[in-house]
Write a structure and sequence with these properties.
By secondary structure, this protein is mostly beta strands. Helix content is about 0%, strand content about 45%. Strands 7-13-12-9-10 form a five-stranded mixed sheet, with no helix packed on it. The chain has a three-stranded antiparallel sheet with strand order 2-4-3, with no helix packed on it. A three-stranded antiparallel sheet has the order 6-8-11, with no helix packed on it. A hairpin with a 4-residue loop joins strand 3 and strand 4. It starts with a strand and ends in a 22-residue tail after the last strand.
Length: about 270
C-alpha cells in the first residue's frame, strides 16, 4: 500500500493519512518519526519538528484490523509531493481452541407398558454419542420414578455395561430388569441414564436421562374349582384337581402350589 505526504505551500498545515493492516509488531515511531513497525522505501522520513498533532483511530472487520493515523505537519519547504511505498504488514492470527468431547444420550428405548411386582421386564435401547469425541467404557443405569426427573427418591433397578462409542455412533443394547416385591403398584416412569456413574466428561452433562412410562401392577392368585375325594387312607394316595387363577392386574411368574392337612380352614 502507499503512504503519501502531500505539501501544498510553505508554512501551510497538511493532513497526512495512512491506513495499514495491523501486524504482530508494535507501532513505534522513534525520535525522528521513523516508523519501525514496517520498512519504508525511500529516504524521506518525518522529522520530530514536523509533527504538530497525532490522532489514532482503530477500525475492526471480521478478519483484519485496520489502523488510521492522521498527521498535521508544519511545512517549511517549497511545494512538492513525496510518495513512499510501504509493504503490507503481516496480519496476526488468533487461534481458537475448540474442545473435543463426547455427548451421550439414550434413544429408541422400548419397554413394556405394564410390569408386575416380583416379575421381570425386557428393555431395549440405543446409547448414541452425538458429541465430537470418543466415549470410553461406561454403564447405563435404570430407575423407577414417579416423574421424568432423576432424584434420590427414585428406585434403582440395575445397570448394564456399555463398550466405548466413537463420535457420531450409537450402540444398540438390551437387558432384563427385575421388579422387586417391595415396589408398590402404580404408574411410573422407567428412567434410562447414560453414563450412569458419570465417568465420561461430556460437552453436555444434562441430557443423559431418557424416560418412558410404565405401570407396575400386582398379581393376585387364588385357588378355585378344587376337587378331591371325601375319604383317604393312611399310607394311601389321593387324586386332586384344581385351578390357579390370577385375578390381579399384574402378571405372575413361576410359583408353586403346596398342600397341607389341617384341623381348620386356616393355614398355620
Amino acid at each position: 500500500m502507499l503512504f503519501t505526504k502531500g505539501q501544498n505551500s510553505i508554512h501551510k498545515n497538511t493532513d497526512i493519512k495512512a491506513n495499514f493492516i495491523l501486524s504482530n509488531t508494535s507501532d513505534i515511531f522513534d525520535n525522528a518519526n521513523n516508523y519501525s513497525g514496517s520498512i519504508l522505501s525511500g529516504a524521506n522520513t518525518f522529522r520530530a519538528s514536523d509533527c504538530s498533532s497525532y490522532t489514532y483511530n482503530k477500525n475492526s472487520t471480521s478478519e483484519v484490523k485496520n489502523k488510521t493515523y492522521n498527521y498535521v505537519n508544519n511545512i517549511s519547504e517549497s511545494n512538492k509531493s513525496v510518495t513512499q511505498a510501504m509493504p503490507p504488514a503481516m496480519s496476526s492470527t488468533n487461534a481458537i481452541a475448540v474442545a473435543v468431547q463426547p455427548d451421550l444420550i439414550i434413544q429408541n428405548a422400548v419397554n413394556p407398558s405394564v410390569g408386575s411386582v416380583g416379575g421381570n421386564i425386557q428393555v431395549s435401547y440405543q446409547v448414541k454419542n452425538q458429541g465430537t469425541g470418543s466415549a470410553g467404557y461406561q454403564q447405563t443405569k435404570f430407575f423407577l420414578s414417579k416423574n421424568t426427573t432423576l432424584s434420590d427418591e427414585d428406585t434403582y433397578l440395575g445397570y448394564e455395561y456399555i463398550s466405548g462409542i466413537a463420535a457420531g455412533v450409537y450402540s444398540s443394547e438390551s437387558t432384563t430388569l427385575s421388579i422387586s416385591n417391595s415396589i408398590a403398584t402404580g404408574n411410573y416412569y422407567l428412567l434410562y441414564q447414560a453414563d450412569g456413574d458419570g465417568d465420561i466428561v461430556e460437552s453436555n452433562e444434562t441430557n443423559n436421562v431418557f424416560a418412558k412410562a410404565i405401570t407396575i401392577n400386582k398379581a393376585d392368585l387364588i385357588i378355585q374349582n378344587a376337587v378331591n375325594p371325601g375319604v383317604g387312607s393312611v399310607g394311601g394316595s389321593i387324586q386332586v384337581s384344581y385351578q390357579v387363577k390370577n385375578q390381579g392386574t399384574g402378571s405372575a411368574g413361576y410359583q408353586q402350589t403346596k398342600f397341607f392337612l389341617s384341623k381348620n380352614t386356616t393355614l398355620s
